[in-house]
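Table S2 (continued). Query chain:
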Amino acid sequence: NEHCHDSEASKIEADVAVINLKRKATECMEPTSTLINMCIAPLSEAAKATLQNNAALKKQVRRKRQEILAAPQNPENLTILEIPDSYRMYTSSTGNEELFLQDDSGPSPDRILIFGRSRSLDILQNSKIWYVDGTFKIAPPLFSQV
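Corresponding output:
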């Protein structure tokens, strides 16, 4: 009888963590893996054992963000692109906001947008050598990722 009670408590603990994960997914823009680690790290081992696998948790975070923070439709051209305020700022898990859209060359067919966090740009500025990688397939149709 005690064993059933323990497993129910673990399941409830895990369910609460998933609810918190989904809430945080809409409140901050930390990377999905970071968010998951923050939410499940304090759980008991028994609760962790009842959670879905990492891929399923990531999918839930992405789905929740898409549902709440749905991106605007892709514009027909770069001259009419409007960037909502929610894409201009970055909110960390601690609630701190900072500028994320670092530069916008303005409406033109050759528009350039530079996104990044100030700390990351400071690191690049003070580095003598850069090694760069990217997920080029995820850039929207009108854009190239460099």
